[in-house]
TrEMBL record:
Annotated signal peptide: none
Domain Ferric siderophore reductase C-terminal as annotated: residue spans: 217-237
Spans traversing the lipid bilayer: none
UniProt xrefs under NCBIfam families: sidero_Fe_reduc
Species for this entry: Vibrio orientalis CIP 102891 = ATCC 33934
Protein name per the record: Ferric siderophore reductase C-terminal domain-containing protein
One GO molecular-function entry: 2 iron, 2 sulfur cluster binding
Upper taxonomic lineage: Bacteria, Pseudomonadati, Pseudomonadota, Gammaproteobacteria, Vibrionales
Domain of life (superkingdom): Bacteria
Amino acid sequence: MSGQSFFEHLFEHSKQVTPYLSGSINHQPNENTDHPIVHIDSSSAEQIQSLYEQLKLLHPEAGAPYWLTRTWTLLCWQPIYVAFIAIYSCRGLPNISAMVQSIQPGFVSGYQFESTTYQQGSEQELITKAGHDLNLLFDYFRSEMSQWTRIRPGFTRHLFADGILGCLVKLSQYAPALPKDYLFEQARLWLQACGLSEKFMDRLTYDETTKQLTLVRTSCCLVYKCQGRKLCGDCPRHPNNKHL
């Protein structure tokens, strides 16, 4: 598959997953002035702090732990989703660490790549490469944020693992015929590739009757601290999940 065809498929599948995941090729992303961008090749500390401050204004009642958690998850959701969609739907992988992301008011939506180059290989090879790229990118995010706030690696690792396993649950929903053993093996490969503990797999449950994979996260997104919001169904604080 040519690079052009690969990215056409990637962008099409991305929008089918959610319209917020809108991709494009832009050879000169720094010239796009419609929205601030986050890119590993330039300083983004100011742009990320601005996102944090927007969340603070939008949800003043939620408090600093929510603003920090939300800022981090907004930065990371698109790279993880794109990696999964590229590998499982398009059988390839762009350079995830080089993704350019657009910061919308109080949200991160829209991504770009600077070229149509991508990697082919087995699922395991692509997952290994994705884990390496995601770690590069997330280390960069943490370094940029550390310029204006304290953000612990342990905190981000939990959110990272929850993001990976949450995407695996979504994959199982899109392809319900995938067997339990395959799904758990994929979970193991992803956690290994990302340098995350395999103990996170303990948060996954597979129902043999319904053939459904479910996750109880290790981290709470704290959205319940926002006015009118409740605990998420996969939250560890939810009463239904207190057994874990």
